[in-house]
Write a structure and sequence with these properties.
mainly alpha; Four Helix Bundle (Hemerythrin (Met), subunit A); 5 helices
Length: 118
C-alpha cells in the first residue's frame, strides 16, 4: 500500500471554514494562526512511514493530534482535526468511523489540547 499524503494547508483551512460556517457555536469565528498551522505540517510531514496500515493510522493520528495540540484556528480545531483526518483516511481507501456520541475522541482531543497549555 502506498500512503497518500496529499492533505495541504489550504485543505485544512477550508475544512475549518466549513466547520465555522455550520454555526454550531455562536462564538465561533474564523481566523488562522499561520505559525501554528506551519507547526502542524512540520509534525505531520516528519512522521516517517513504511506504507503499511499501521503507519497509515500513525500518520492520521499525528495529523489529528497536531491540530488539537497546535490550535491553528480561533475556533473549531478539534472538529477540523477530526474531519481532515477522516479525509486523509478516505484518500487512502479507509473510512474513519467515530461513534455517534464521540465522547472518547472528544476526551482524547481535549487531553492533547490541555498538554499544550500545561
Amino acid at each position: 500500500m502506498k500512503i497518500i499524503c496529499n492533505i495541504t494547508k489550504q485543505d485544512v483551512i477550508e475544512t475549518n471554514q466549513r466547520v465555522i460556517n455550520l454555526h454550531l457555536d455562536e462564538l465561533d469565528v474564523f481566523c488562522v494562526r499561520q505559525d501554528a498551522l506551519d507547526d502542524v505540517f512540520k509534525i505531520f510531514d516528519n512522521v516517517d512511514v513504511a506504507d503499511d496500515l499501521q503507519d497509515l493510522i500513525k500518520k492520521g493520528a499525528y495529523l489529528m493530534a497536531s491540530i488539537a495540540w497546535a490550535q491553528p484556528f480561533c475556533a473549531g480545531n478539534k472538529r477540523t482535526a477530526s474531519l481532515i483526518t477522516a479525509t486523509f483516511f478516505h484518500h487512502n481507501g479507509f473510512e474513519m468511523v467515530i461513534p455517534e456520541d464521540g465522547k472518547e475522541l472528544r476526551k482524547l482531543l481535549y487531553e492533547i489540547q490541555d498538554e499544550r497549555q500545561a
